[in-house]
Amino acid sequence: MWLLSQGKLTREVADATGYSPEWIREVSRRYNRSGAEGLGDRRHRNPGAAPLLSPEQQEELAEALSGPPEDGGMWNSRKVALWIGRKTGRRVRAQRGWEYLRRLAYTPQVPRPAANAGADPQEQEAFKKGSPSG
Fold first, then answer.
1. What is the pLDDT of residues 81-131, one digit of tens each?
2. Is the pTM of this model over 0.70?
3. Domain regions of the chain by residue span
4. How far apart are CA 79 and CA 73, in angstroms?
């Protein structure tokens, strides 16, 4: 607003601030309508979208996660997304399954690959013997 009050053009303000010209015009309209009150952060008034799963469904998911998935193996984001999809009747991406796993404090349950999984133990030992000790 200060730049606009100094006579700068919308495109100059946009260049200086990194905001789009449309957003500069919107903020200016808010200021003209409501004064300084119109400039406040309005995100806290935004309730956001309703959660995909109700609290009861989240409890049901937590209970399901305590056992093995229907197809065996371990739970992963794809399997959780499929579970959610069956409960809600909606197509759910694996990312959303990951979000619910994390929300319920679950972490990936697959072993990390070892860097030397295919290494020859004799070659490793020979390397250790030939290396200068630190």
1. 999 999 999 999 999 999 999 999 987 666 666 766 677 888 878 887 777
2. no
3. 2-41, 55-103
4. 10
